Protein: Adenosylhomocysteinase
Amino acid sequence: MCISEMPGIMALRKRAADDRPLKNAKIVGCTHINAQTAVLIETLAALGANLRWAACNIYSTQNEVAAALAEAGFSVFAWRGETEEDFWWCIDKCVNAESWQPNMILDDGGDATHLMLKKYPAMFKLIKGIVEESVTGVHRLYQLSKGGKLSVPAMNVNDSVTKTKYDNLYSCRESIIDSLKRSTDVMFGGKQVVICGYGEVGKGCSQALKGFGCVVYVTEIDPICALQASMDGYRVVKLNEVVRNVDIVITATGNKNVVTREHMDKMKNGCIVCNMGHSNTEIDVNSLRTPDLTWEKVRSQVDHVIWPDGKRIILLAEGRLVNLSCSSLPSFVVSITSATQALALIELFNAPPGRYKSDVYLLPKKMDEYVASLHLPTFDAHLTELTDEQAKYMGLNKAGPFKPNYYRYVTRMLKFRKSYSTGSF
Ligand SMILES: NC(=O)c1ccc[n+]([C@@H]2O[C@H](COP(=O)([O-])OP(=O)(O)OC[C@H]3O[C@@H](n4cnc5c(N)ncnc54)[C@H](O)[C@@H]3O)[C@@H](O)[C@H]2O)c1
Structure:
């Protein structure tokens, strides 16, 4: 079903099938395993790659998909509801196999990279490139690079415009509603919600909930994002200021201990607590595993945590990514991310020696534009072509790239600030 909603990755599969640009690539994949990932895996195989795959999250695997992939002959190590120990066992199995020397890593969160680097350093040295999808994994890569420990080139797919804007913003805008509705049947109108973090994910969640009539508060550490939130009509607060009154708390920071036991002690009865960020440490769930609190599973991915006075908070997915645990992602958005990942793999795998050093790179802008163009026919969108005169006037190539690398496609407020500071309205 999702194939028809994934036009970009299917177009790429068709266009590159004859060239097989990933012939001889041996890819370790560590991502969420769902129907859309299967389309990516089949595409990479059609482009010539040999693959082994594990899950990057213990709750998000669609078992039927993992089984179907295994039946089709792919080496997949994942199931829904792995323990922490199973999780690392699966990645280890995926990385380390007889007569298998991987040369590429496709990671989401940096766990496959981390395991290979720590446990199999000799194997890691022979890797040609890493493609990383998440904010968290990219952060780890930059830390490795800064510490001089990154010995291979890596592509930061997360910050490709085509990934950040569509996956983090538009996808989360839809899936936050879906996951809260499916797991709690909550009515949104008039509810007070606090969203921690006003980055791409936080912006998507805030927009969606505001659209349903929620009163939305935002917490931020960054004055730029806090100002954006204020100008977008949200009250920017400290969590402590609203935590006693809100009905829903959502984290979207990629940070740790954003919601602590102290906050949860103050929450009101029935408060829903969930996390949209990659890391499962945003909500300090471990602090809830104390003898004075009782846990009651009310349905899959939904726990009541009960205080001695009878107060309950509703914790979703034990603080892990709520949309991937309690709902699914829109295939169209995944198509954009998958096409970006596939192109990044092709680019790193085929790059002539010297083009990329042991550092973290962004996908060239031209490829971002290519991924977007693969998805335009779905909307019957007709691009305007530059005339020769216009191209000369703007100093652009008629075939792109159309924007400089530093152009971030941000909200009007920031663009306004930039042109104001350069005096170029
Ligand atoms: N659920 C999903 O489907 C999905 C999709 C994409 C990304 N993500 C994950 O969501 C997280 C956020 O992604 P993003 O693209 O919005 O990143 P981002 O960097 O654009 O935004 C995160 C924001 O959180 C703020 N922040 C950091 N610490 C904070 C704190 N203690 N309190 C309040 N605000 C704080 C930062 O200033 C930043 O503005 C990442 O972990 C990312 O991997 C999830």
